[in-house]
Amino acid sequence: MKVELIAYTPTASGICCDAAAVCTNSKNGYHSLQQSLASGHESVLEHAVFTFRVEGLSRAALAQLTRHRLASFSVQSQRYVRIRGVDLIIPESIRNSDFYMEAGSLLEDVMNLYQRMVDAGIPAEDARYVTPQAVPTALIMTMNARELRHFFSLRCCNRAQWEIRKMADEMLKLCKQTDPELFGNAGPGCISGKCPEKKSCGMPRQKKEWDS
Fold first, then answer.
1. Domain closes at, from 130, 146, 162
2. Each residue's pLDDT tens digit in the chain (212 positions)?
3. Residue 69 and residue 90 share a domain
4. In this structure, what CATH number is given to the domain that contains residue 59?
5. Which of 8, 96, 149, 175 gives 20 to 30 Å between its CA and that of 114?
6. Annotated active-site residue in 128, 146, 149, 155
7. Cα–Cα dist 103/85, whole Å
8. pTM flag (> 0.85)
9. Domain identity same for 148 and 200
10. What is the secondary structure of 149-179 as a DSSP string?
11. Active site includes 149?
């Protein structure tokens, strides 16, 4: 999987500070922003946006990602783009199991069937119905800082599915490098306090994990 931060609001934290200062009629935007975040008034973060390019995300993980509705997505089409020579995404739990050979053979047969169907004249938009969720895709995604912080609180959690957690971890690293003011304390709830999940994983994460 490849994750890139390809665009973002210049002086993102400065714009959010200005927004917070306007809300409180203050001359100290930094202080106003800290007060706003501490009190849960995060609407001021919506003025800063970040755009990512993601390659090598499975269709299974894409279905989870697009549940985050306060974001904009442009996803590689399976209707107009023929699937050729892709490396299917297979979880380690399957790779390390007795089912790996059987699963690999099944996936190969399915993808061969897809190619034969398209070669025979069946439209790619119809042939794609036989393809597995293991097929990778590429996308560009834009989120504002508020939604990103919410996204990180859910998807950087150890209880999140491994693939979307891997993507979220890479996104958080990039955001912290770009604007530590807005994302210095971003991540799952366990990094700043008690786990918000009904059932904790028992392995709280550490802020330093996203500092590399």
1. 130
2. 999 999 999 999 999 999 999 998 888 888 899 888 888 889 999 999 999 999 999 999 999 999 999 999 999 999 999 999 999 999 999 999 999 999 999 999 999 999 999 999 999 999 999 999 999 999 999 999 999 999 999 999 999 999 999 999 999 999 999 999 999 889 998 887 777 777 778 788 888 889 86
3. no
4. 3.30.1360.170
5. 96
6. 155
7. 18
8. yes
9. yes
10. HHHHHHHTSTTS-HHHHHHHHHHHHHHHHH-
11. no
